[in-house]
């Protein structure tokens, strides 16, 4: 029941993901960060098998760092997306990673871009994309309201509309969402959308 | 003697590994490199041998970073350096991937020294012909460190050190003039030490400064020229002060 979706605006990219960590019928936590900051100007939102998600995204992040140290310049978003797809493709017929990825990045020369990479290593460059059961609702909302040159405020309004749909129409809807943004100033956390807060752990007296 | 310097896996009767010692010779022929550790700043300065007019000097970087908080300079065979640096960079990321923490300076120095040692105890290979100066801040405690490794695979920590051409004279200078410094004073000390054996001027020296907040920063030629000018002025003033009292006596 995980949801990850993203869209590209005038000069920024947004990735939103639910923050539930679920095992069968148990909710481990409701504030799990599934959107990895790959480097200063890239976001990788991932959904799928929990262990694979953490392992694969960290592996990609360390390889992106290594490229930067070896070559003195960062990877472009397109290059990072193709590298990620390549790793998924190589592992596919042996030991597949069950991870779906939305990769958003900002390059100085080409501006913002968004890539849809699914667990069987399909790669699509898109303006908007979504994964999970929530995608039925998020994609429909985005198809209706999305425009190429949205401002940050308009885009966040659209993201909130998608979250509202998922919350109200999906049977076991994730309660909390995390939104991250990437633009010329870098990749960073934008906002949380919480309907349940984890109770603070009380320390023994 | 000639019989004991072919394969490095063979000791000579008086306990030498000749190939390793010859590798140290190669280091002694390499460009001079100086490292100085301050309280909040660590500086690496490397001699830039005259660049051919047509060569793009930006493609020849002598001070490189291994990770956000670790940098390396070396003296000796530059091609060997490329291989060692590449392995060290991979190890920095690999360690972060498995341990979720950045490497300590000591760890990566031990790793590089371990690599260098491996090649002194294998068949059919030769040692790496370079000594490295490794600087960095401990990711948890923030303490600055300076380490040196050599072709035999030994490593140790230093307050200030030099390697490469004329390293003995530079080390003598440092032993005489070292004191705990911080910030710009550390930079000046490193450049003064290097100027003992290198022609003065920004285009003959490459300098990089590492601080906890800003990581590694390569100094521009103009900046280096300015500091060199400062140093020369201080030297001239010291000379004048030495001469002044004697003229009063006449």
TrEMBL record, chain A:
CDD domains: proteasome_beta_type_2. InterPro entries: Ntn_hydrolases_N, Proteasome_beta2, Proteasome_sua/b, Proteasome_suB-type. It holds the Pfam family Proteasome. One of its GO terms (cellular component) is nucleus. Transmembrane segments: none annotated. Keywords: Cytoplasm, Nucleus, Proteasome. One of its GO terms (biological process) is proteasomal protein catabolic process. It is found in: Cytoplasm; Nucleus. Gene3D superfamilies: Glutamine Phosphoribosylpyrophosphate, subunit 1, domain 1. Component of the proteasome, a multicatalytic proteinase complex which is characterized by its ability to cleave peptides with Arg, Phe, Tyr, Leu, and Glu adjacent to the leaving group at neutral or slightly basic pH. The proteasome has an ATP-dependent proteolytic activity. Component of the proteasome complex. Belongs to the peptidase T1B family. PANTHER family: METALLOPROTEASE TLDD, PROTEASOME SUBUNIT BETA TYPE-1. This is Proteasome subunit beta. The lineage of its organism: Eukaryota, Viridiplantae, Streptophyta, Embryophyta, Tracheophyta. The gene is LOC105171321.
Automatic annotation (TrEMBL), chain B:
The 20S proteasome core is composed of 28 subunits that are arranged in four stacked rings, resulting in a barrel-shaped structure. The two end rings are each formed by seven alpha subunits, and the two central rings are each formed by seven beta subunits. Pfam families: Proteasome, Proteasome_A_N. This is Proteasome subunit alpha type. Keywords: Cytoplasm, Nucleus, Proteasome. Transmembrane segments: none annotated. It comes from the Eukaryota. PANTHER family: PROTEASOME SUBUNIT ALPHA/BETA. GO terms for biological process: ubiquitin-dependent protein catabolic process. The proteasome is a multicatalytic proteinase complex which is characterized by its ability to cleave peptides with Arg, Phe, Tyr, Leu, and Glu adjacent to the leaving group at neutral or slightly basic pH. Its main location: cytoplasm. One of its GO terms (cellular component) is nucleus. The keyword Cytoplasm applies. SUPFAM superfamilies: N-terminal nucleophile aminohydrolases (Ntn hydrolases) (SSF56235). InterPro entries: Ntn_hydrolases_N, Proteasome_alpha, Proteasome_alpha-type, Proteasome_asu_N, Proteasome_sua/b. SMART domains: Proteasome_A_N. Residues 4-26 form the Proteasome alpha-type subunits domain. It is found in: Cytoplasm; Nucleus. Belongs to the peptidase T1A family.
